[in-house]
Design a protein that fits this description.
The complex is a heterodimer of chains A (150) and B (483).
Chain A lengths: L2 H25 L11 H20 L17 H19 L2 H16 L4 H22 L12
Helix pairs in contact in A: 1-2, 3-4, 4-5
Chain B lengths: L1 H13 L2 H19 L5 H8 L2 H4 L3 H18 L1 H7 L8 H12 L3 H34 L4 H18 L4 H15 L2 E2 L6 E2 L13 H17 L20 H23 L4 H16 L12 H16 L1 H7 L5 H12 L8 H4 L1 H22 L3 H6 L5 H20 L2 H19 L6 H32 L2 H12 L2
Antiparallel strand pairs in B: 1-2
Helix pairs in contact in B: 1-18, 2-5, 2-18, 3-5, 3-11, 3-16, 5-8, 5-14, 5-16, 5-18, 6-7, 6-8, 7-8, 7-14, 8-12, 8-14, 8-15, 8-18, 9-10, 9-22, 10-22, 11-20, 11-21, 12-13, 12-14, 13-14, 16-22, 20-21, 22-23
Classes of the chains: A mainly alpha (150), B mainly alpha (483).
Chain lengths: 150, 483
């Protein structure tokens, strides 16, 4: 099994332990007659610790192959996409819907899809327009106004 | 008699112009995503969940969602047969014999038998749903917290066992889903859990953001890792209506597939994928010429395609009668019902008869629509594969982002969705099947409430019986509570 699976299994165990502590110490377990808010989180945390440990063992324990999660650079495109979406989430209210959508589409086509300028502009314009018509005109969803007309 | 009265009421609802239009839209979208690889019915229903806020009629929105679900099962076979590329997980097994038939110049017959088998199975399953669901709901009215807890636990565990991938990973996702459902106010004590000071999290995570993130954007992010090559389809489709010999070979397969699919679909976690695999195995066992399997046996297409369609319809039974979603797509429909203020469960048929019978009747209509959409227009659907993924992906991203934002007009929801998108991406990367996550998230609050009520009541009951003096057991309980 791969090294990244074993690392993920360790994260599951640590997360489970944190949930166990949070359920026991912060939320409180209550009594068997009156289970409190920490009762099910505590049990779920224990389950995650056990399952994480099982996953670690199944994945080869401390041995196994060393193939990395980041090999081959296949994660670059998804990471860029997440970055763009984070900026878009901020810009949609700060800048306005139409401007941010257009810029997002252009950035996506150029950085993620590596398209040429003509195709980029065409797809970006049509995509932004279609979404505006669908949400704003057809579904009557109020979208944030542009920063220059506020 | 009550049953026929209900069905008549259902047809009077399903045959209104609005509901016919939305049933058609659902069937159309379902067929489109069934053909396109890379986007499943769960993801599509998740993407369309915000629209249910705009459609104010619960019947209409559920009719559309149901249409997407069974429509995608109907059309999933198209790319399996023509390109050896399953449009849906449930159509993987169709590739084996369907593609071989296409290579022998019998693509039309394979597509035809898949569509007709799906129609027959869908109709049989709707008839089963019509007669099976009301008595089951009546029976479930007697259920209390222990029965519900047992049923939900069984459903969740079956979903884990029957989902793809390892059981350990499935269980991890199940508990992660339960924990995500606990974020916010504790339903019994009112304590705030797992919010870490965030005001946005006090109401808990919204199902729409989870579903759109894990199933919609998570799938897009994962697909960005690989490049989709759009092949130009050169396979000659030929006549889509099966010959007399095809009929003779396939008729029992269709019937066996329908029955197998219907019963597997009722089991939580069963669903379309398991039923198509089971049907293929059954067909191979029952075949007069088993050596033809894998070389283009029409039974290998007819059985599984009938089974996955029957299962997609019968999986509505646990949802509409017990309030338990059996698979990810049905969990989305569960959420759509909740958005409309309707709690799925045994009271649904009594309190919202128009929703139950309207949806059931629309399935009869939808099956006919799908037959018309799939048989003569198969060539058109294949052309859809020419749309490049580089255009589809950003459009879906925009659709999800604006869709999630439109629910409450707050960017917090977009950030939550991105968190779930990264979670969905990592799950796929680490070979986790995300199916148990929405099920656990949806059932989480109910599981917790039933478990805590059940534990409390059973201990109280035991104490009362053991002491045989209610006053004494009452004292004991008060004493323990004060600890």
């Amino acid at each position: 099994m791969k090294r990244h699976e074993r690392i993920a299994a360790v994260f599951v165990v640590i997360g489970g332990l944190a949930v166990v502590y949070y359920g026991y110490a912060v939320l409180k377990l209550g009594s068997i007659f009156q289970p409190d808010a920490g009762f099910l989180p505590f049990l779920s945390g224990i389950a995650l610790v056990i399952l994480g440990a099982c996953w670690f063992v199944i994945s080869g324990g401390f041995g196994g192959d060393q193939e990395s999660f980041f090999e081959g650079g296949r994660w670059v495109k998804p990471a860029m996409a997440v970055g763009l979406m984070l900026v878009y989430a901020w810009a949609i209210e700060a800048v306005g819907y139409i401007t941010s959508t257009l810029v997002f589409m252009v950035a996506w086509q150029l950085l993620v899809e590596r398209e040429g300028w003509f195709k980029t502009i065409l797809i970006s314009f049509l995509g932004a327009l279609a979404m505006y018509l669908l949400f704003n005109r057809f579904l009557k969803v109020p979208v944030p106004p542009e920063f220059f007309i506020r | 008699m009550e049953l026929f009265h209900g069905l008549l009421q259902g047809f009077s609802i399903a045959l209104t112009w609005t509901n016919l239009l939305f049933a058609f839209l659902g069937a159309l979208i379902g067929t489109a995503i069934g053909v396109l690889p890379g986007l499943g019915p769960a993801a599509t229903i998740a993407l369309l969940l915000p629209i249910t806020y705009v459609i104010h009629s619960p019947v209409t929105s559920i009719i559309m969602m149901a249409g997407i679900f069974y429509g995608s099962m109907y059309a999933g076979s198209t790319t399996s047969i023509l390109l050896n590329l399953p449009g849906e997980a449930a159509s993987v097994v169709t590739c084996i014999d369907g593609y071989q038939m296409a290579k022998k110049g019998r693509a039309g017959a394979a597509l035809g038998i898949a569509a007709i088998g799906s129609f027959v199975a869908g109709t049989i399953a709707v008839v089963g749903l019509t007669f099976f669901a009301p008595p089951l709901a009546e029976f479930a009215l007697a259920f209390g917290p222990p029965e519900y807890f047992a049923l939900m636990a069984l459903g969740l565990l079956l979903a884990v066992t029957l989902s793809a991938g390892s059981v350990v990973k499935g269980l991890i996702i199940l508990f992660v889903g339960l924990l995500l459902a606990m974020v916010g106010l504790d339903p019994i004590s009112g304590k705030i859990r797992f919010t870490f000071g965030s005001i946005g999290l006090q109401g808990g995570f919204d199902f729409v953001t989870l579903a759109m993130g894990v199933f919609g954007l998570g799938e897009i992010l994962y697909n960005l890792e690989s490049t989709f090559e759009t092949e130009i389809v050169t396979t000659k489709i030929g006549k889509v209506f099966p010959t007399l010999r095809d009929w003779t070979d396939a008729k029992w397969s269709i019937l066996r597939g329908s029955v197998t699919g219907f019963f597997i679909g009722i089991i939580p976690g069963g669903g379309a994928v398991v039923s198509s695999l089971a049907s293929y195995a059954i067909e191979k066992k029952c075949a007069r010429r088993p050596e033809e399997f894998g070389r283009g046996a029409i039974e290998g297409v007819a059985g599984p395609e009938s089974a996955n369609n029957a299962a997609s319809t019968s999986s509505f039974i646990p949802l509409l009668t017990l309030g338990i979603p059996g698979n990810a797509s049905i969990a989305m429909i569960f959420a759509a019902l909740m958005i409309q203020g309707i709690t799925p469960g045994p009271f649904l048929i009594k309190e919202h008869a128009e929703v139950f019978w309207g949806v059931v009747a629309s399935m009869y209509v939808g099956n006919v629509m799908l037959l018309v959409l799939n048989l003569p227009l198969v060539g058109l659907w294949v052309q859809m594969l020419r749309v490049p993924y580089s255009i589809l992906a950003p459009i879906i991203v925009l659709f999800t982002t604006v869709g999630v934002y439109s629910v409450q007009n707050q960017t917090f929801d977009i950030y939550s969705m991105l968190f779930f998108a990264v979670l969905g991406y990592l799950m796929r990367k680490l070979k986790f099947d995300p199916t148990p996550l929405p099920l656990a998230f949806v059932l989480g609050p109910m599981v917790e409430r039933s478990l805590r009520q059940f534990v409390k009541r059973s201990i109280q009951k035991k104490r009362g019986k053991a002491g045989s003096r209610p006053l004494a057991s009452g004292k004991g309980m008060i004493g323990r509570d004060e600890d």
